[in-house]
Amino acid sequence: MTSIPAAIPALARYGWDRAWADAFAPYAADGLLPGRVVRVDRGQCDVVTADGTVRADTAFVTPHDPMRVVCTGDWVAVDPDGSPRYVRAYLPRRTAFVRSTSSKRSEGQILAANVDRAVVAVSLAAELDLGRIERFLALAWESGAQPVVVLTKADVVPDPVTLAHLVQDVETSAPGVPVLSVSALHGDGLDTLLALVGSGTTVLLGQSGAGKSTLANALAGADVMDVRAARDVDGKGRHTTTTRNLLALPSGGVLMDTPGLRGVGMYDAGNGVGQVFAEIEELAGRCRFHDCAHESEPGCAVRAAVADGELPERRLESYRKLVRENQWIVTKSDARLRAEMKNEWKRKQAEGKAAGAAKRGHRP
How far lies 235's CA from each of 108, 207, 242, in Å? Predict the structure, then answer.
């Protein structure tokens, strides 16, 4: 049987290790070469191999399921030669960042594969949208990666007290998540971020104009990504990055830059939502009813925490929104669960009618 060494210098820079070598062994026996996808573009992909970067066709591994297409970050088995060369398979993913393809459909779209860390870039040139940050974090936790929030363009907030308050606001909405403020223009905070991304694979996520490409250039120490100015009025920009690109950083680690995301719909991210709103999940355990919806039920510990000022009303509203959206996506793809949800809605509707009748003095 042909064996693949655990340490291949050209691939080690991109995260190759003994576990990947073991997983690749069956393909090595067939004479295929291991490589990591650094870019995907319309059925073609660039794959870094021990012999350099090659262009390969993905026709053999492009099913109708958007969750199973080749993605940037995948480890793949490619033909050793030929024109064109083909990707024959990809190895099972350790982690995957997934969003729903749109707010009205239940299909998932994989954005990044085999990432250890998900950096959510948020521009301080625009008003903070804590709800959007929570949405990104829920998907990041669900992917299996460690989320990090990076507040970019910190130079637009010259007052250190104001900057500290903004960081604190995000920390409150991101329990258990590191929150850094960075100015790529002046270099502030870059050393801390470089140390954080100096190992494993990190994906950069965020809206257009969040400064992801500028941040990628700063971390890479070179102008590897195009940068366009954002609008002063709202801090938004056009899509500078149009594909997902994997870069080996000179200081160590691998960085994946992604196009700006206008929408980040939930996709079966119940565990991720629970981690983002850990304090609400803990409070929910004290509610009188195990299926409490935290609306008007008696003995609701969550509503009591809001009334006491312990829990911000905004956090609860954001939690409800993401839970509802995630349930909708799950039920769209799960007929049994959809039936259960419909029965639950009918039960609550009946209870509401009975309560209304009782208030009017009518016997139910």
Answer: 29, 10, 19
DSSP secondary structure of 341-361: HHHHHHHHHHHHHHHHHHHTT
Q: What is the pLDDT of residue 344?
A: 58
Q: Which residue range(s) make up the domain with 337?
A: 270-359
Give the Cα separation of 35 and 45 in Å (integer).
11
Please tell me whether the peptide bond between 84 and the residue prior to it is cis, using omega within 30 degrees of 0.
Answer: yes
Q: What is the pLDDT of residues 326-336, one digit of tens each?
A: 887 766 655 55
User: Would you state the pLDDT for residue 340?
Assistant: 54
Regarding whether 229 and 145 lie in a shared domain, the answer is yes
Give the per-residue pLDDT at 2.
Answer: 55
3-state DSSP call for residue 138? Answer: helix
Residue, of 354 and 35, whose pLDDT is higher: 35
pTM for this predicted structure: 0.80
Summarize the chain as % helix, strand, coil (round to 5): 35, 20, 45
Shared domain check, 245 and 122: yes
Q: For the stretch 336-361, what's the b/e string if a residue is b when 16 or more beta carbons lie within 10 angstroms of its beta carbon?
A: eeeeeeeeeeeeeeeeeeeeeeeeee
Return the structure tokens found at 187: 């270099």
DSSP code of 154? Answer: G
For 263-300, what is each residue's pLDDT tens digit? 666 666 788 899 999 999 999 999 999 889 898 889 99
Specify the pLDDT at position 239: 42
- Contact status, residue 303 vs residue 281, Cβ threshold 8 Å: no
Cα 94 from chain centroid? 14
Among residues 58, 90, 122, which one ends one of the domains? 90
Angstrom distance (rounded) from CA 225 to CA 58: 25
Alpha-carbon span 214 to 208, nearest angstrom: 12
